Prior knowledge:
Elements: E1 4-11, H1 15-26, E2 31-35, H2 42-46, H3 48-65, H4 67-70, H5 80-91, H6 98-106, E3 110-113, E4 115-120, E5 123-128, E6 131-143, E7 148-149, H7 165-168, E8 177-181, H8 185-196, E9 200-204, H9 214-226, E10 230-232, E11 236-241, E12 246-250, E13 253-258, E14 260-263, E15 267-268, H10 271-274, E16 295-297, E17 300-302, H11 313-328, E18 341-344, E19 349-354, H12 357-362, E20 367-373, H13 374-377, E21 390-396, E22 401-409, H14 412-425, H15 429-433, H16 445-452
Parallel strand pairs: 1-2, 1-6, 2-3, 6-17, 8-9, 8-14, 9-10
Antiparallel strand pairs: 4-5, 5-6, 7-15, 11-12, 12-13, 16-17, 18-19, 19-22, 20-21, 21-22
Bound molecules: flavin-adenine dinucleotide.
Amino acid sequence: MPAEVVDAVVIGMGPGGEDLATRLLRAGLSVVGVDGRLVGGECPYYACVPTKAMVRAAGTLAEARRVGDLAGSAAVTPDWSIVAARVREEITDNWDDAAAVEKFEKAGGQFVRGWGRITAAGEVTVATADGERVFHANRAIVLNPGTAPQVPALPGLADTPYWTNREAVAVTEVPESLIVMGGGPVGVEFAQVFARFGAKVTVIASHLVPQNEPEAGELLAEVFEAEGIAVRGGHGTAVGHDGSEFTVELDSGDPVRARHLLIATGRRTDLTALGIGSLGLDENAHGIPVDDRLRAADKVWAIGDVVGHGAFTHMSMYHSRIAAADILGTSSETAQYHAVPHVTFTDPEIGGVGLTEAQARAQGLNVRTGFTKLQDSTRGWLHKAGNAGFIKLVEDADRGVLVGATSVGPDGGEVLAALTLAVHAEIPTATLRRMIYAYPTFHRAIEAALDALPAS
Ligand SMILES: Cc1cc2nc3c(=O)[nH]c(=O)nc-3n(C[C@H](O)[C@H](O)[C@H](O)COP(=O)(O)OP(=O)(O)OC[C@H]3O[C@@H](n4cnc5c(N)ncnc54)[C@H](O)[C@@H]3O)c2cc1C
């Protein structure tokens, strides 16, 4: 079959792929966008967007439940049908990407629904419902395959009706009881959402949010306990399902039982399916190695989750800008990862940027830390309003700059912006100490954390 010749083929139309394809179109290139699922990728249909709608709804319930402490009385009756309808109708368009496809095509792109793989240098073969199509890309092949849920090989699990994030965002009823396997951002966000809507939730995880400072996981565990969410340490060793109830055996004690089971134990990409072996790349690796312009091989770029610098939508978009500019030759910007921000949208929100204290010490830096609890430094008098949180700063004392920071609290993700700027721009800590921090904002706790940082 003769190859259709174009300038660029983008395999995987996640946030970065869609953005990059559009940038190339705007520059006048002919672009084919390929996706086996939905244009937009995981984020708008199964991940960031529907989960944040759920978080917002659950947070509203929690806020209403504080009325008794602060403002009088309010009767709160959770109704999941409102959340389910919003996710289905307003947010995911019933998991239909017609609008996104139309937008891409109106911009001049050619969309092909199917699974793409590299079959030779410059060549992509797409398996569609109507057979294979072959494209030759003159200027660029871009790989943006993202990640899929990683399901552990536990005895019994494969035969059960477990959920991953893809099923959990689509539920129409709150589970009566739920086991969440995994304490990372995906697991803890779903755990708190469903618990606030009335589910009896047990999280199985040795540590909560382990990619953050340990104080964040410890505080979240306290909050979970106060909200009735059980946290069981250890690992699941086997899973059973008797037709109505799951049983998860644990290496650390008694089994856990619940009506539903959510697997949130990480993400993976099937590199073999992408055909990167034909480029001489390791298909058994954890991700695709790239240089600082996201180049994976001659005329091949890889962006997003698969590159392994953080599985975040903002990372995929950041990569898109750099790779697109490199393809077009319009900029020589290179990717830098010293100030990657990330937010877990629990209540309290957990924001982090740069290195944790342990990571900084492992790099051999001369580390100093500053720590303050929000309730000790700002708005302590509003404690009942649910403002548990803290700021932790990690300084490279030799250079006098922050190399990492954590901001936990009601607006932890927003407060993180100031800290991200400080880490990104390597603003001297002495300069940060001389700033004026408005009272009584949550970000004012940054000043208290700076006060707690030993001076040179
Ligand atoms: C529950 C959950 C909540 C999250 N919340 C947040 C959040 O709040 N903030 C945040 O920044 N991040 C969040 N993330 C992470 C975020 O969803 C991803 O980092 C983001 O989607 C960026 O991924 P990507 O562009 O690399 O690819 P993806 O979004 O994963 O898209 C990749 C696309 O490639 C397609 N594809 C793969 N292989 C092929 C192939 N061979 N041929 C054709 N198509 C292919 C897939 O079908 C998919 O559509 C969350 C993730 C989960 C699971």
